Automatic annotation (TrEMBL):
<dbReference type="InterPro" id="IPR001930">
    <property type="entry name" value="Peptidase_M1"/>
</dbReference>
<dbReference type="GO" id="GO:0008270">
    <property type="term" value="F:zinc ion binding"/>
</dbReference>
<dbReference type="GO" id="GO:0006508">
    <property type="term" value="P:proteolysis"/>
</dbReference>
<dbReference type="GO" id="GO:0005615">
    <property type="term" value="C:extracellular space"/>
</dbReference>
<keyword id="KW-0862">Zinc</keyword>
<dbReference type="InterPro" id="IPR027268">
    <property type="entry name" value="Peptidase_M4/M1_CTD_sf"/>
</dbReference>
<dbReference type="InterPro" id="IPR045357">
    <property type="entry name" value="Aminopeptidase_N-like_N"/>
</dbReference>
<dbReference type="Pfam" id="PF17900">
    <property type="entry name" value="Peptidase_M1_N"/>
</dbReference>
<dbReference type="GO" id="GO:0016020">
    <property type="term" value="C:membrane"/>
</dbReference>
<dbReference type="InterPro" id="IPR014782">
    <property type="entry name" value="Peptidase_M1_dom"/>
</dbReference>
<keyword id="KW-0479">Metal-binding</keyword>
<dbReference type="GO" id="GO:0043171">
    <property type="term" value="P:peptide catabolic process"/>
</dbReference>
<feature type="domain" description="Aminopeptidase N-like N-terminal">
    <location>
        <begin position="95"/>
        <end position="197"/>
    </location>
</feature>
<dbReference type="InterPro" id="IPR042097">
    <property type="entry name" value="Aminopeptidase_N-like_N_sf"/>
</dbReference>
<dbReference type="Pfam" id="PF01433">
    <property type="entry name" value="Peptidase_M1"/>
</dbReference>
<dbReference type="Pfam" id="PF11838">
    <property type="entry name" value="ERAP1_C"/>
</dbReference>
<feature type="domain" description="Peptidase M1 membrane alanine aminopeptidase">
    <location>
        <begin position="245"/>
        <end position="457"/>
    </location>
</feature>
Length: 870
């Protein structure tokens, strides 16, 4: 029975019946190193109060259920286990239920994930549950509002590091383990937390310890143990000093900001392999993708991104863990806040003062893209079930929500905003809070009517476009100025924002010479008399990025941006101008060749590595998706030639050199013009002093060479085999899989398709193989288009939603071209998608949503191609 998709209604009904007190969970992982063993023993005892005589159910996705005991009475599992649920009939006022089962080790990153390190054969385990995969590890009431205290015990092989949310209290030999020589690790009981943030980590992890100390104004002191974990084969790349410095800075900042001490007993951070997310806020044991360790070296932008994520997760200890949303409709209440706090704390507590620039440059682009899809939703979304919840961890919930909070701070003031946060924690500590709770404390702290603001910003979907309507005379002086708002999804919102005027200054730089503060009501326009008389060649709407809206540049400002963007002195302003140009290109208002031209003219002079990297990524997308086929090879060649020229001249060992090398590798996937030189780099016949040619970059270059090879190349095949033999790391395994799939032959594509549609690949190997498969001439992929649509429902039914999403999104035939004179709406892939949607009206809503979104992405690209110059 498929009943894993818990609905909001079912969760609310269960909450009305029961109140959970505590769990005791025992996991026997002693046989985990044996690859032939696919399951593990799991025993759960849960105590809870209930309405006497009521019926309810526990959530459990297990290989087998061996026993169910309810209040001392053993029930037949065949009678009470139905799919992903364990029925609990005839409950008492006070209940104790014990469930013994065998869980499955995961390769999808959901539940208890098992990874074998190709470098040394060591086995590593970690859990990942959000939104509801704790049930894959132990029986539980797997919904956020049924909080409880948890006490974990884990049996693991001797010599393994083991951790959980609580503090380890004892470790002793366990004679009853599945495998001899195992050790039982017992952990202290947690405070009342939700199931989705419980966690277990086990394996021969490298561990580094530290401490954070804090003195309060009243003279009291606090000490919190710190720890970092990573795979032993990556230990040399665990920059513990910097990570501990950031951790201490964050704990001090948030403790003082929120007026409430860090609420958990320890703060450990683990960097784990094959992780589906950037990180997860498990209290006491935060997990991160090990992509935040940098064997190939890192640009400052990458280090800033890691610091931002670290602060994001740390803020969750208050927003999300201490106070939790009752259901996934209010996911924004933790994720929007954490996204905001990640940048805010980075600026206030660390030396990454450019964090808000990075947010404006890249994170908001994620929001704009998501918010223009047919499936857009309000920040406070309607989430009827778990499948919908999994799809709402998106750019709206995170980046738009954070941008809206930035606008809220501009609306009510920073002090009242912080006061509201403090009061929310005071009232709802160890419990749950939703939108109404937040609005109540915000209204009290600010003394303002926030209901109307919330309705406009949190309760509606879509992104507005703001622009200046300027009438200039022959000398360029403004005679009339108005700020215009073009609604997104028909919604006009109030905006508090700044307008910046830029004029030429010393060194021919464009410097800000004036700022106008504007309160734009929920209206289509407002006059700006302060701009009358100005001759500024550049006027920037949303100076300092205070509001959430796309910006359309006026004609004079657009011309100035295209000719002089690199002359703009302010980093935030440059990032916003790049954003405005990119949105215009995506909206088919700026020719993709003009955007690529701007990158060629100004991108290489951009001093902020993150802004440069984003501009480069967008230039690649402009070439590969927005430009018409007739212009693509020419634009790609111009861009790649320029990138290689800049790479050869770049300062050794700098951020620019590494970013340029990565961009060259990406462009070279579809252009073999520099293949010989790249091959020489890889095989030591050429060199770029200072460039860290580590495994990630090496495999990116090998993938490019394979994808542009002229069919089967025995010499290249032999070189790839040598590279793989020399690189036994996880990066090497992923790179080899991607590179094999990229080879442009029917045989290579057939082998890749068989691997992708089989069930042997882990999450990361699946994505790597899909990435390689998608490279190469379109005619090689044409035979798979119909097979893709034919398998969709089967894939969705047989795979976890995480793995199915990787397949459905990754294999969608989006690399399509519009024939000159043809209608984008009648493109064969668009038409085939619409036929599938029509014929599968009853397919799962989450699956249909992906197809609707992919169709829209394709249509947007085709419209840009149709309007572009050939």
């Amino acid at each position: 029975m498929r009943n894993e998709n818990l609905s909001r209604r079912e969760a609310a009904d269960r909450s009305a019946l029961i109140a959970v007190e505590d769990y005791e969970v025992l996991l026997d992982l002693s046989a985990a190193p044996d690859p032939a063993v696919g399951t593990f023993p799991t025993t759960t005892t849960v105590r809870f109060r209930a309405e006497e005589g009521a019926q309810s159910f526990l959530d459990l996705v297990a290989a087998t259920v061996e026993s169910v005991v309810v209040n001392g009475t053993e029930l037949n599992p065949d009678d009470v286990v139905e799919g992903a649920r364990v029925r609990l009939p005839s409950l008492a006022a006070h209940n104790e239920v014990t469930v013994v089962a065998r869980g499955r080790y995961s390769r999808s990153g959901e539940g208890l994930h098992r990874f074998t390190d190709p470098a040394d054969g060591a086995v590593y385990l970690y859990t990942q549950y959000e939104p509801a995969d704790a049930r894959r590890v132990f029986a539980c009431f797997d919904q956020p509002d049924l909080k409880a205290s948890f006490r974990f015990a884990v049996v693991a092989p001797h010599g393994w590091e083991v951790s959980s949310n609580g503090v380890r209290m004892a470790a002793a030999p366990e004679p009853a383990a599945e495998r001899a020589g195992a050790v039982r690790h017992a952990f202290s009981a947690t405070e009342r937390i939700s199931t989705y943030i419980t966690a277990v980590l086990a394996g021969p992890y490298a561990r580094v310890t530290g401490e954070w100390r804090h003195a309060f104004e009243d003279g009291s002191r606090m000490s919190v143990p710190l720890a970092l974990y990573c795979r032993a084969s990556l230990a040399e790349h665990l920059d513990a000093r910097e990570l501990f410095d950031l951790t201490r800075q964050g704990l001090t900042f948030f403790t003082e900001l929120f007026g409430r001490p860090y609420p958990f007993g320890k703060y450990e951070q683990a960097f784990v392999p094959e992780y589906n997310l950037g990180a997860m806020e498990n209290p006491g044991l935060v997990t991160f993708t090990e992509e935040y360790l940098f064997p190939d070296g890192a640009t400052r932008a990458q280090l800033q991104g890691r610091a931002n994520t670290l602060m994001h997760e740390m803020s969750h200890m208050w927003f999300g863990d201490l106070v939790t949303m009752p259901w996934w409709d209010d996911l924004w209440l933790k994720e929007s806040f954490a996204e905001f706090m990640g940048a805010h704390a980075s600026v206030r507590a660390t030396d990454f003062e450019e964090a808000w620039i990075a947010f404006a440059d890249r994170r908001k682009a994620w929001a704009y893209r998501q918010d223009q899809l047919p499936t857009t939703h309000p920040v406070v979304a309607d989430v009827p079930d778990l499948e919908a919840a999994k799809q709402n961890f998106d750019g709206i919930t995170y980046a738009k929500g954070a941008a809206v909070l930035k606008q809220l701070v501009a609306f009510v003031g920073y002090g009242p905003f912080v006061a509201a946060c403090r009061e929310l924690f005071r009232r709802h500590a160890w419990g749950c809070a939703g939108l109404e709770d937040f609005l109540a404390v915000l209204a009290e702290a600010s003394g303002r009517d926030v209901r109307g603001w919330a309705d406009a910003w949190l309760g509606t979907a879509g992104v507005a476009t703001l622009s200046l309507d300027l009438a200039r005379d022959d000398d360029g002086a403004v005679g009339f100025a108005a700020l215009l708002q073009e609604p997104g999804s028909g919604v006009l919102r109030p905006h508090r924002l700044l307008l910046g005027s830029y004029e030429r200054g010393p060194g021919d730089l464009l410097v800000r010479t004036g700022t106008v503060e504007v309160d734009l009501p929920a209206a289509a326009s407002v006059e700006i008399p302060e701009l009358v008389g100005s001759t500024a060649p550049l006027m920037l709407v949303n100076e300092e990025d205070l509001t959430y809206a796309k910006v359309r540049l006026d004609p004079v400002s657009l011309a100035t941006a295209l000719s002089s963007l690199s002359s703009v002195e302010d980093g935030m302003a440059r990032a916003q101008l790049w954003s405005a140009l990119w949105n215009a290109a995506r909206d088919a208002e700026l020719d993709p060749s003009d955007f690529v031209g701007a990158v060629l003219d100004h991108g290489f002079d951009e001093p902020l590595a993150g802004v440069f990297a984003t501009a480069g990524d967008r230039a690649v997308e402009a070439v590969e998706r927005l430009a018409p086929r007739a212009a693509r090879a020419r634009l790609r060649g111009r861009l790649l030639d320029a990138v290689v020229r800049e790479l050869r001249a770049a300062d050794p060992g700098g951020d620019r050199q590494l970013a340029l090398a990565r961009l060259a590798a990406r462009l070279a996937r579809r252009d073999g013009g520099h293949a010989a030189w790249l091959r020489d780099l890889l095989e030591g016949r050429a060199a770029l002093p200072g460039l860290p040619l580590g495994p990630e970059l090496r495999w990116a270059l090998w993938t490019a060479l394979a994808a542009t090879a002229a069919g089967e190349d025995p010499a290249l095949t032999a070189a790839l085999e040598r590279e793989q033999a020399a690189d036994r790391t996880r990066t090497g395994r992923l790179g080899a899989a991607r590179t094999r799939a990229a080879v442009p032959t029917p045989q290579a594509k057939a082998a890749a398709w068989a691997a992708i549609t089989g069930e042997e690949l882990s999450n990361d190997l699946l994505t790597a193989t899909i990435t390689g498969f998608r490279l190469g001439p379109p005619e090689l992929l044409e035979p798979y288009r119909e097979r893709y649509f034919a398998m969709l429902e089967e894939v969705w039914a047989q795979r976890s939603i995480g793995m199915a999403t990787r397949l459905v999104e990754g294999l969608y035939p989006s690399d399509a071209d519009l024939e000159p004179g043809h209608d984008s709406a009648r493109h064969p892939v668009v038409a085939r998608t619409e036929l599938w949607l029509t014929n599968h009206a009853g397919a799962p809503a989450a699956l249909r949503r992906i197809l609707v979104e992919e169709r829209d992405h394709l249509l947007r690209a085709l419209r840009a191609q149709a309007s572009a110059r050939g």
